[in-house]
């Protein structure tokens, strides 16, 4: 499988990273080089092998369904590029 | 008088307790070294006042006859991947420039609670993605080491914990925190002639550490001796309900149990770690390491880890996939940079913010990760990689039926010149060939210096242990440390 300019632009769009045409073109061989290399995994026989999701056997803990945090609005907003009236502010999304 | 900045963590702790010097004298000495080492670019933010504040608290406690804390009087460096309350935390990215967390990471909090003071926030590869510390937005870290013979080429301190490794080997701090996703503690330790341990996945809480690849990220200490690593790790490890993968286990007394007597232990030598073309000096050091462990009483056996060659490609699917997901949070809304072109809508703002905030290697990995997780390719790449990861972990399980620990080189070469490998991402990735397998399997592993190569640069050995058996890893590291007698240090030029 090799990817072309259009695919690179699509991946960039899915990644929400704007790229210029020149940047996208430069990425085509770069990404192909890396993807071509990782494709060697296809040759490994994985019949009957379960995909690994946790490296160290550990059970996912449950806790009581109670509020453990909160009332820290100003701390949450402290690093926002733009905060107004106690909210995060973003460009208008609905006309 | 003793040069305080030449002391190890253990010597500072014990000397302070014995009344040989004050904590303030120690902090001031390290602050002075930090201030005089701008040429290394090891720190993004310097916090001399924090180091002095902790030192004064230690001095007051000592004067009042109060019980001293495990790290009272010891100043350390903090990798700038750990969130520190009120102190800028950037992950070496432009994206987080100016970000001052309103909370403290669990690991850093544990260290401050143990009495340590902060000398500053250490430079690293951007979002911990890199092996040479050349991807930081705040500039390259320069290794204090130089090749012999008047060659003044700037060398890589390794990565991603390159600020930590450079600062420790240059005596800017006696110890520092690191994080290790595929070798980011061990490879920089090897490049700079110091020690560093990545504990078992789950030993140290990931809460408050800027996330890269969550199934692999693990914090650990870096210092000049194995004992210092044991001391630091005792304060860093421990259960944290705020991290769902944190192990609910008591923290062993690693320092008190240190012993370089390896009688009864079997050391496995994985044959797949000796590929054709392995650097001859590294191979020779490895052979010396085998003799050192035999001398310490261990029995040596050959073992096989058949899927070793697939570890790097597996890592370069799984780590970018997790990174693409983790780094989705940088949206220009909640923290960090925002780039809002004139008239742009929300989607345009996301794309512009991320284009401006992330460096090229970070973008590359996000895009690889996005691709391997995208519809139609998920099974071929990501699920396949997770299955191969299971086989890599099984290789270790089977090897550990025949032995108690593994001895390997840490990195395939000594430090290289900055710029030398930057043009080819794949060549850079290959640096992690010996460290990535243990990361994929979540196993504890330490890097210890073994000697110098013909150019006068440090080379390291790696010990990989069974899950949760940091003690054997530390003990074998100590056995090598005692026999290698590594005393070399970079000649001061900065």
Automatic annotation (TrEMBL), chain A:
Any one of the GO BP annotations: glutaminyl-tRNAGln biosynthesis via transamidation
The reaction(s) this protein catalyses: L-glutamyl-tRNA(Gln) + L-glutamine + ATP + H2O = L-glutaminyl-tRNA(Gln) + L-glutamate + ADP + phosphate + H(+); L-aspartyl-tRNA(Asn) + L-glutamine + ATP + H2O = L-asparaginyl-tRNA(Asn) + L-glutamate + ADP + phosphate + 2 H(+)
Root EC class: ligase
Gene3D superfamilies: Glu-tRNAGln amidotransferase C subunit, N-terminal domain
Pfam families per the UniProt record, alphabetical: GatC
Documented EC number(s): 6.3.5.-
Keywords: ATP-binding, Ligase, Nucleotide-binding, Protein biosynthesis, Transferase
InterPro entries referenced in this protein's UniProt entry, alphabetically: Asp/Glu-ADT_sf_sub_c, GatC
GO molecular function: asparaginyl-tRNA synthase (glutamine-hydrolyzing) activity; ATP binding; glutaminyl-tRNA synthase (glutamine-hydrolyzing) activity; transferase activity
Taxonomy, superkingdom: Bacteria
PANTHER family from the UniProt entry: GLUTAMYL-TRNA(GLN) AMIDOTRANSFERASE SUBUNIT C, MITOCHONDRIAL (PTHR15004:SF0)
Quaternary structure annotation from Swiss-Prot or TrEMBL: Heterotrimer of A, B and C subunits.
Function: Allows the formation of correctly charged Asn-tRNA(Asn) or Gln-tRNA(Gln) through the transamidation of misacylated Asp-tRNA(Asn) or Glu-tRNA(Gln) in organisms which lack either or both of asparaginyl-tRNA or glutaminyl-tRNA synthetases. The reaction takes place in the presence of glutamine and ATP through an activated phospho-Asp-tRNA(Asn) or phospho-Glu-tRNA(Gln).
Family (UniProt): Belongs to the GatC family.
NCBIfam families (alphabetical): gatC
Record HAMAP family: GatC (MF_00122)
Record's protein name: Aspartyl/glutamyl-tRNA(Asn/Gln) amidotransferase subunit C
Lineage per the UniProt record: Bacteria, Pseudomonadati, Pseudomonadota, Alphaproteobacteria, Sphingomonadales
Gene, per the UniProt record: gatC
Automatic annotation (TrEMBL), chain B:
Listed PROSITE patterns: AMIDASES
Keywords: ATP-binding, Ligase, Nucleotide-binding, Protein biosynthesis
Active-site feature positions: 79, 160, 184
Keyword check for Nucleotide-binding: yes
EC number(s) on file: 6.3.5.7
Enzyme superclass (EC): ligase
Reactions performed catalytically: L-glutamyl-tRNA(Gln) + L-glutamine + ATP + H2O = L-glutaminyl-tRNA(Gln) + L-glutamate + ADP + phosphate + H(+)
Family annotation (Pfam families): Amidase
Amidase domain boundaries: 33-474
InterPro entries: Amidase, Amidase_CS, Amidase_dom, AS_sf, GatA
Entry coiled-coil feature ranges: none
Keyword Endoplasmic reticulum included in the entry's annotation: no
SUPFAM superfamilies, per database record: Amidase signature (AS) enzymes (SSF75304)
Record-stated family: Belongs to the amidase family. GatA subfamily.
The protein's role, per its UniProt record: Allows the formation of correctly charged Gln-tRNA(Gln) through the transamidation of misacylated Glu-tRNA(Gln) in organisms which lack glutaminyl-tRNA synthetase. The reaction takes place in the presence of glutamine and ATP through an activated gamma-phospho-Glu-tRNA(Gln).
Assembly information from the UniProt record: Heterotrimer of A, B and C subunits.
Annotated protein name in UniProt: Glutamyl-tRNA(Gln) amidotransferase subunit A
Organism whose genome encodes this protein: Sphingobium fuliginis (strain ATCC 27551)
Gene name of the encoded protein: gatA
């Amino acid at each position: 499988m090799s990817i072309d300019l259009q695919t690179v632009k699509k991946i960039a769009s899915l990644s929400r990273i704007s790229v210029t045409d020149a940047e996208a073109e430069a990425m085509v061989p770069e990404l192909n080089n890396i993807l071509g290399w990782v494709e060697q995994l296809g040759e490994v026989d994985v019949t009957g092998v379960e995909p690994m999701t946790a490296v160290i056997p550990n059970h996912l803990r449950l806790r009581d369904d109670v509020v453990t945090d909160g009332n820290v609005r100003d701390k949450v907003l402290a690093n926002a590029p733009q905060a107004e009236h106690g909210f995060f502010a973003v460009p208008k999304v609905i006309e | 008088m003793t040069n305080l900045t030449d002391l190890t963590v253990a010597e500072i702790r014990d000397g302070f307790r014995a009344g040989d010097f004050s904590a303030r004298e120690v902090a001031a000495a390290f602050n002075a070294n930090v201030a005089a080492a701008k040429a290394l670019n090891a720190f993004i933010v310097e916090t001399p006042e924090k180091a002095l504040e902790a030192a004064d608290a230690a001095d007051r406690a000592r004067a009042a006859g109060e019980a001293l804390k495990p790290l009272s009087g010891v100043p350390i460096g903090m990798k700038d991947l750990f969130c520190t309350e009120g102190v800028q935390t950037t992950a070496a990215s432009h994206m987080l420039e100016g970000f001052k967390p309103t909370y403290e990471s669990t690991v850093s909090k544990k260290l401050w609670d143990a009495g340590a003071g902060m000398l500053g926030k250490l430079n690293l590869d951007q979002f911990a993605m890199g092996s040479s510390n050349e991807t930081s937005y705040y500039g390259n870290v320069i290794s204090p080491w130089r090749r012999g013979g008047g060659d003044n080429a700037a060398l890589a301190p390794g990565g991603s914990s390159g600020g930590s490794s450079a600062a420790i080997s240059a005596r800017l701090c006696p110890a520092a925190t690191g994080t290790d996703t595929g070798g980011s503690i061990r490879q920089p330790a090897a490049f700079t002639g110091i020690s560093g341990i990545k504990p078992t996945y789950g030993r140290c809480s990931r809460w408050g550490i800027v996330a890269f690849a969550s199934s692999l990220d693990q914090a650990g200490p870096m210092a000049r001796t194995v004992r210092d690593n044991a001391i630091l790790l005792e304060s860093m490890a421990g259960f944290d309900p705020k991290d769902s993968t944190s192990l609910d286990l008591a923290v062993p007394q690693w320092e008190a149990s240190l012993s370089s007597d390896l009688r009864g232990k079997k050391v496995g030598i994985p044959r797949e770690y000796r590929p054709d073309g392995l650097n001859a000096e590294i191979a020779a050091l490895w052979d010396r390491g085998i003799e050192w462990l035999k001398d310490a009483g261990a029995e040596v056996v050959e073992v096989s880890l058949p899927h070793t060659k697939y570890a790097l490609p597996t890592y370069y699917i799984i780590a970018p996939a997790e990174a693409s997901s983790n780094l989705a949070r940088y949206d220009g809304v909640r923290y960090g940079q925002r780039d809002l072109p004139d008239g742009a809508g929300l989607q345009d703002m996301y794309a512009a913010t991320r284009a401006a905030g992330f460096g090229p290697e970070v973008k590359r990995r996000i895009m690889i990760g996005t691709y391997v997780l995208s519809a139609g390719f998920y099974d071929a790449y990501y699920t396949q990689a997770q299955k191969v990861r299971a086989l890599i972990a099984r290789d270790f399980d089977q090897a550990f039926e025949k032995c108690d620990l593994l001895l390997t080189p840490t990195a395939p070469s000594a430090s290289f010149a900055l710029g030398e490998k930057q043009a080819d991402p794949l060549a850079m990735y290959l640096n992690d060939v010996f460290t990535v397998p243990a990361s994929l399997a979540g196993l504890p592993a330490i890097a210890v210096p073994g000697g110098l190569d013909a150019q006068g640069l440090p080379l390291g050995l790696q010990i990989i242990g069974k899950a949760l058996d940091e003690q054997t890893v530390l003990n074998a590291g100590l056995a090598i440390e005692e026999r290698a007698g590594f005393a070399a240090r970079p000649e001061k030029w900065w």
